[in-house]
Design a protein that fits this description.
Chain A: Its EC number is 6.1.1.20. Chain A: Keywords: Aminoacyl-tRNA synthetase, ATP-binding, Ligase, Nucleotide-binding, Protein biosynthesis. Chain A: It is an enzyme of class 6 (ligase). The complex is a heterodimer. Chain A has 12 helices and 10 strands. Chain A is an alpha+beta fold. Chain A has 2 domains: about 90 residues; about 220 residues, BirA Bifunctional Protein, domain 2 (2-Layer Sandwich). In chain A, helix 1 runs parallel beside helix 4. Chain A is rod-shaped. Chain B has 5 domains: about 70 residues, Phenylalanyl-tRNA Synthetase, Chain B, domain 1; about 200 residues, Phenylalanyl-tRNA Synthetase, Chain B, domain 3 (3-Layer(bba) Sandwich), CATH 3.50.40.10; about 70 residues, 2-Layer Sandwich (Phenylalanyl-tRNA Synthetase, Chain B, domain 1), CATH 3.30.56.10; about 150 residues, BirA Bifunctional Protein, domain 2, CATH 3.30.930.10; about 80 residues, 2-Layer Sandwich (Alpha-Beta Plaits). Chain B is of the alpha+beta class. Helices cover about 30% and strands about 25% of the residues of chain B. Chain B contains 17 helices and 30 strands. Classes of the chains: A alpha+beta, B alpha+beta. The interface between A and B is large, with 91 and 88 residues.
Chain lengths: ~325, ~625
């Protein structure tokens, strides 16, 4: 009897290993635990044994039956459940990618920049997108008839009066007009221009503006924050070029370029053979702007800077068509 | 601005390579715009402020100052033999306010012919084709000094006058390029004998142009209101070299050196004699001065520049120092610097010529000002995070849409395309477009959201509001419930599908979208998502209601509202049609140890009577 038990046990184990489908498992059940199954038959022989043998083999046979039943049950579970059960055992198989929610690339970049400036003690400012000529042009030292205020570049809502803001500088004049210095503020925001949509331009775009007004602010402070900011954006090794550039709302004005990372300053198609790529405009806030906003330029000085975000977002995320960035054709997972 | 190096080197001796010269110009504010090539011409980006940077001399002057080299200008021509008649040969009359100056000279017995090589090669390098010696001289001086000049054939002048006046409707002019232009009263023109000969400051007519046969000419140099030139040229769609100068602010004094230079070149190259003619110049500008305080220079630059260096820079840029004391300098602004208005502009010039590369970087050391970030900004970022955590994708779509029948919609006055001329009044349509785009590509079960502004007009008020909109092909109510739960806000949906919190509408819901107004939500929300620090073994009871279809969930809530009950939450797990009624499966939850049986009885009774609802508990 002992030998038979051992034989059935080992045959069962090897048979079970061969089972890959529920049908095969049913057959296995019948083979061992069915009416004519080997285990059942062995159990049937039990009554023919002596009382002392019954006491030895009874529990052993019962154990065998129970163990086979539970093994079949386990196997059945394994077979009926999907493959993931198997997969969870094989840790070398890569998992399936499940979709998650995404922030818009522009939001991601704005957050990164905000983080940087928050650490430097800047607040985040906001303002209206429907703006009037006063805040969008006049207080920025752009008098009537200035070429930058041309009708063909601006989306007007009411002639000579209301428009869609053409830059985030309008938020600068609003904050300077309503808050007292000292001020350190950055303004990310949507701006508008009268342009036909193309792969590189849309009639709205994102700008990132920053300004500081306090006593004793000079152009060296501007150079310092812009150096750190560009190192934060492009890495410590980035080569910068600071040059004079005219902007009506600042004097002295300053343009900032980064060395082209495709040609390393030699000049290529990407940088239009300049060796550098223009990234930002800045300067010391024009005394006329401060005055127009009710701030005495003989007591307070300040700097301002502004940059377009879209080109930067597109570069960082490898997007070649701006219409995809804002037209909703971003392919997320 | 194109700078042929061969021409530039007429005014300063510089032995740098073209690349190095371009680098210097870039530092000065004239960035290299086009790639350097073998032609020896620098193409520099020009900003609209500096009209003198549209002249080779203007650029050379700045470069000479930057490189600390002497500037060599054309010699003045004071020794010219010039006749002055008691009566001008051609009478000049100006009948428009847009003319600041109109100076003329008359030449007789000139020999029109080809120009010498030095002249044609400079013009050609700049990009102007040689016509004849007279026209070439006017073009040369325009590029050299930045002052446009115009020569007309005296014999072809219809009258004995040049009258500048507004054009009359119906008048026409054929330009030197052969284009017919219809004139109107917004355009001012030069006429002679009553006939139009030139569109003022924009383009000359073919009728009086100088040709091989010309022997007598009248040369003029005008100074006009740049804003009018800008408007008129854009309207007539004429952009040429003359316009690109005249649409900037030029000083009328620029006419003096330019006219004298042109006169001596004409006499040199074409011979003949010159007579002074009329010079309409009603208000010659007075020299302007500015005071530079050393303390201001130090304040803005953070530098203590040596006084001799500063004075050297100012003089090299043609400022003249008229007064000096220990604390300041008074300087006269050179007439051609129409961009210089305030003391800080002088400082800009000084720092520019001193090279921005030489400015140190100094970290801010002033105390950090108080934080003025709007609370809403942070709140919206929190909303973004919560929605992303729920698997929604953020999108940013255009604020401009196609014309809307909504009479509160704001239409733009000027827009390039008619499908982009109205400000959006909802974020939902454009998000649904995107959803449709995704569906087309087999991406389903996607939720999208946008946080942005929408616009509307109420009477003469133009309003903008911040919206959050979520669109999804899935059951939208789950997203809203989850979001509101995490914000700790209890809400209900009204019969008109408004999202209501404490009797206040904070948004709206539709079959596949909902919109929330973040500014109204902010004061209602809890700063932190609710956290339960211990397990509360709350009791819950299910209730299955068979409701006639004329009622909705909001009616159930409305019926229960007046009761004083202690249940914490009520949750509608499902609503399915069952025969002629709808089966609502509700779950009520009470705190531990509540008398749930009594309350559920009360609820049942109320609902049965109030809404004639059949129920089974």
């Amino acid at each position: 009897m002992q030998t038979q038990i051992t034989q059935i046990q080992s045959r069962f184990t090897s048979d079970l290993d061969q089972v890959h489908t529920p049908t095969e498992l049913d057959a296995l059940y019948l083979k061992y635990l069915g009416k004519k199954g080997s285990t059942t038959q062995l159990l049937g022989q039990l009554k023919e044994l002596s009382l002392s043998d019954k006491k030895i083999y009874g529990p052993l046979l019962n154990q065998l039956k129970q163990s086979q039943e539970s093994q079949i049950k386990d196997k059945s579970k394994l077979l009926s459940s999907d493959v993931s059960h198997l997969l969870s055992m094989d840790l070398t198989i890569p998992g399936q990618i499940k979709p998650i929610g995404h922030l818009h690339p522009t939001t991601i970049l704005i957050r990164e920049m905000n983080d940087f400036f928050r650490q430097q003690g800047y607040s985040i400012g906001e303002g209206p997108e429907i703006e009037n000529v006063e805040y969008n042009f006049r207080r920025l030292n752009l008098p009537e008839g200035h070429p930058a205020t041309d009708l063909q570049d601006t989306l007007f809502i009411r002639e000579g009066d209301l428009l869609l803001r053409t830059h985030t500088s309008s938020v600068e004049t609003r904050i300077l007009s309503s808050q007292k210095p000292p001020l350190r503020v950055v303004v990310p925001g949507k701006c508008y221009r009268n342009e036909t949509n193309s792969t590189t331009n849309t009639n709205f775009f994102y700008q990132y503006q920053g300004f500081v007004v306090d006593q004793g602010i000079n152009i060296q402070h501007l150079k310092s924050i812009l150096t750190e900011f560009h190192q934060f954006l492009f890495g410590k090794d980035i080569k910068l070029r600071f040059r004079y550039k005219y902007y009506p709302e600042v004097t002295p004005g300053m343009g900032v370029d980064i060395e082209c990372n495709f040609c390393h300053g030699k000049g290529c198609q990407i940088c239009k053979y300049r060796g550098f790529i223009e990234v930002l405009g800045s300067g010391m806030i024009h005394p006329n702007t401060l005055k127009a906003c009710g701030i005495d330029p003989s007591i307070y000085t300040g700097f301002a800077f502004g940059m377009g975000l879209d080109r930067l977002v597109m570069t960082k995320f490898g997007i070649t068509d701006i219409r995809k960035l804002y037209g909703g054709e971003l392919i997320y997972l | 601005m194109k700078i042929p190096l061969i021409w530039l080197k007429d005014y300063l001796k510089i032995d740098k390579t073209p690349r190095e010269i371009a680098a210097s110009f870039t530092q000065l504010g004239l960035m290299l715009d086009k790639p350097l090539d073998q032609t020896g011409v620098l193409d520099l980006e020009h900003r609209m402020d500096r009209s003198d940077w549209l002249s080779i001399i203007g650029c050379a002057r700045d470069l000479a100052a930057f490189e600390n080299l002497p500037l060599k200008l054309p010699k003045p021509t004071s020794k010219l033999k010039q006749k002055t008649l008691s009566q001008p040969e051609i009478a000049i009359r100006v009948q428009t306010p847009h003319v600041r100056r109109f100076a003329t000279k008359v030449f007789h017995q000139v020999k029109v012919g080809p120009s010498p090589r030095w002249l044609t090669e400079r013009l050609l390098a700049y990009g102007i084709k040689s016509v004849n010696n007279i026209v070439d001289v006017t073009n040369f001086v325009m590029v050299e000094y930045g002052q446009p000049l115009h020569a007309q054939d005296l014999a072809k002048l219809p009258g004995q006058d040049i009258t500048i006046r507004a054009a009359c409707a119906g008048e026409k002019l054929t330009t030197i390029l052969g284009t017919d232009i219809k004139l109107d009263s917004n355009v001012f023109i030069l006429t002679s004998g009553g006939l139009p000969t030139v569109i003022g400051g924009i383009v000359g007519g073919v009728g009086t142009s100088v040709t091989q046969k010309t022997t007598d000419i009248i040369l003029d140099a005008g100074n006009y209101d740049q804003r009018i030139i800008r408007q008129t040229s854009r309207r007539l769609k004429i952009i040429n070299e003359t316009v690109s100068h005249y649409d900037k602010y030029l000083d009328p004094r620029l006419i003096d050196p330019a006219l004298s230079r042109a006169t001596s070149l004409i006499l040199e190259l074409a011979g003949g004699t010159v007579t002074d003619n009329d010079d309409y110049y009603p208000h010659p500008p007075k020299p302007q001065t500015l005071t530079l305080h050393w303390s201001r220079l130090q304040l803005l630059s953070g530098l203590t520049l040596p006084k001799p260096t500063v004075k050297r820079i100012l003089r090299a840029l043609d400022y003249s120092i008229v007064e000096e004391d220990p604390s300041s300098l008074v300087v006269e602004i050179p007439y051609f610097r129409t961009d210089v208005e305030v003391e800080d502009d002088l400082i800009a010039d000084i720092l520019r010529i001193n090279n921005y590369d030489n400015l140190p970087a100094l970290a801010l050391s002033t105390p950090i000002p108080p934080d003025i970030t709007p609370e809403l900004y942070r709140f919206e970022d929190r909303l973004r995070d919560l929605l992303v955590a729920k698997g929604a994708h953020e999108h940013i779509t255009s604020s401009l849409t196609t014309a809307s029948p909504d009479n509160h919609a704001i239409t733009l006055l000027s827009a390039t395309s008619s499908d982009q001329n109205t400000l959006r009044s909802s974020l939902v349509p454009s998000l649904q477009n995107v959803l449709g785009y995704y569906a087309k590509h087999g991406l389903k079960n996607i939720a999208l959201f946008e946080i942005g502004k929408v616009f509307s007009q109420q009477g003469d008020k133009y309003l903008e509001h911040r919206h959050l909109s979520v669109v999804s092909t899935q059951k939208i109510a789950d997203s809203l419930s989850t979001l509101m739960h995490v914000l700790g806000i209890n809400y209900h949906i009204s019969l008109t599908y408004q999202i209501v919190v404490k009797q206040k509408t904070v948004g709206a819901i539709g079959p596949h979208f909902y919109t929330l107004y973040p500014d109204l939500l902010l004061p209602l929300s809890q700063a932190y998502s609710p956290v339960v620090s211990e397990f509360l073994h709350s009791q819950s009871r299910d209730l299955s209601l068979l409701v006639p279809p004329r009622y909705v969930y909001a009616d159930i809530l409305a019926a229960l509202n007046p009761l004083t009950l202690t249940y914490q939450t009520i949750n509608c797990k499902s609503a399915t049609p069952l025969g002629k009624v709808n089966n609502y499966l509700l779950t009520f939850t009470w705190p531990a140890k509540s008398n749930t049986s009594a309350e559920i009885k009360q609820i049942l009774k109320t609902l049965k009577t109030a809404l004639s609802i059949d129920s089974k508990s």
